[in-house]
What we know:
By secondary structure, the chain is an alpha/beta fold.
Amino acid sequence: MQSMLGYMRKAxxxxxxxxxxDRVAVGVSGGKDSVVLLAGLARxxxxxxxxxxxxxxxxxxxxxxxxxxxGPIEALCQELGVPYIVKRTGIGEVIFDVxxxxxxxxxxxxxxxxxxxxxxxxxxxxxxALGHHSDDATETLLMNLFREGRIGxxxxxxxxxxxxxxxxxxxxxxxxxxxxxxVRRCSLPVVKSQCPVDGxxxxxxTKIFLNDLEHSDHGVKKRIFGALRRSGIDGx
Length: 236
């Protein structure tokens, strides 16, 4: 976990993500990325030199009309001393049962973002932390290039004027392999996604493409991410 804390501390300081008095909502899906983000932000409070509060928020999509058991996440939050909020939604039913979306990811992401924004504001938070890492950034850059013919990526920090809330990505400098290692070494609980298309998305295909490329040309992912950082686009 020490290496992850180092990556997170560097990102927070370099992009000025958190300031004294902030109340940060961590979007916790239950997956490895969000769980490491939660544990990291909670532990950083003791030595980063910034006074801030952390609130964990989980949106249960309600896939197939079923409630997901987030008991392991609740136990982790108690251990970390972090308030935990679970919002039950019908997003899964709307996407798959009502609208029967053939390409569900985009609409699902928009609906989850909107619900998370509202839940964070309701909890008195002025910032929302998401668990995107450097591999996510590289994949997004290539997806935008290959699918839309444009050069772009999500930003490390994004202010949403309509909601008056700021999105931050404290793990954006960390490789995904370091996150997997942190979960394993710290025995962090992971709640598997119940999404019907989990593992069969455009992002998953891009991930496989990049991993194959990395296997034949070691270091290519790091070089692409470095190019993104040096480009200065989208707040980088």
